[in-house]
Amino acid sequence: MIKIIPGALRLADTVAGLLGLLDRPLDPDELIRLAREETGLRDFGDASFFGPLCRLLKSLSEESGLSLVGRSATRWDIVRFLSNLLVIEDSVKRDHGILGERVEKPIFITGLPRSGTTFLHRLMLDDPENRAPAVWETIYPSASAGSREQRIKRVAAQLRAFEWLAPEFRSLHPLDATSPQECSEITSHVFRSLRFDTTYLIPSYRQWMDADIQRHLPGSRFHKRFLQFLQHQDGRVSRWVLKCPEHLFALHAIRTVYPDARIVFVHRDPVKVLLSQARLTEVLRRPFTRRLDPRALGPDESHRWLDGTQKMIAASDDAKFAEPICHVHHIDLITDPVTTVEAVYKHFGMHMSGGVAQRIQQHVRAQPNGGYGKHHYRFEDHGLDEARERDRFRPYMVRFGISAETSSPNHAEHSKWPPAQVGALQA
Q1: Which of 37, 259, 285, 398 is the most buried (most CB within 10 A)?
Q2: What total number of domains does the chain contain?
Q3: What are 364-376's pLDDT values in tens digits?
Q4: What is the pTM of this model?
């Protein structure tokens, strides 16, 4: 059972709501002013973020029912994004070598959420030749925010604060300051990311993002600039390995910005995915809103990820990427992770050393459940019907030869696979 936000916060929401404090529109000009004051910088360079920011704020104000915590966290989040934009633009103006950094043949891991993409991502990062943005550096990418150690410490404290608000989060999605981060945190800087749709109920913003595949292009362009910024600070980066389910909706943009991108699709029974994703969305949204209907989340997630499966089918038939898409099945990943990772390397003409195989084996032994807790899910709790969802997703399962999972949704107790691998099921 989810622990509720402490009564003091709920009481504060009630009082603030009665006073009309929570219904005031969020002002983009005020947030921009705060970012400029915080950084001492004024020039954003490309100001195309302003329109999407205004759309997001309007949707948040009118649709999301922000709580007092939600309103405060949203303001902090947006000022941080704007501050990072200012700092990165200033750095680029001072050092033209940043945009000269070559980001070659990046690997993008994507697929349905909760399907094993995180597990594969973290296994590939056992290879020291591979690099991914970490949580701390997507929040504070510049040394102007402090030393590496200082920034990690700050982010660790922020994560602990969020876990106090959402105690179930860590068991659903283990995350530390030094963990690899999803790319949606990067594209959020220019306010073109479905990360906001996961955290808030903002249907008009989501509809705007869905209306045109070109909407993801500015996000992907900033994504590359962000990687160039990190890479310039690091020195040489052999290979970027990136991960985000949202990439399914930005494949055209990725292909445009990274013509040599390598794409990996991870496949899993989508019906089992939906329950876990609906629960995670519930846990993420609860601290930030005054109203939440868990039964509405399941149909919403089903609609979103049915579209995602259709994107995978279309891309596999005619993606026009420089190299064919690599397909990974989660059952192969969890039963034989080393061989599966080796197969990804082989698909793209890469070589995986024996030392990497050893590190992957040690990784799996060290985290026998992937850091995930045990959870019970029921279709009716999130407004879903199993038979109906099976019918809806059947074309995807047939297209990629995905077997239905017959084990209980409580994977950790009832999975037929070895205990050392079951954590990957919920990753």
Answers
A1: 285
A2: 1
A3: 998 765 555 566 7
A4: 0.90
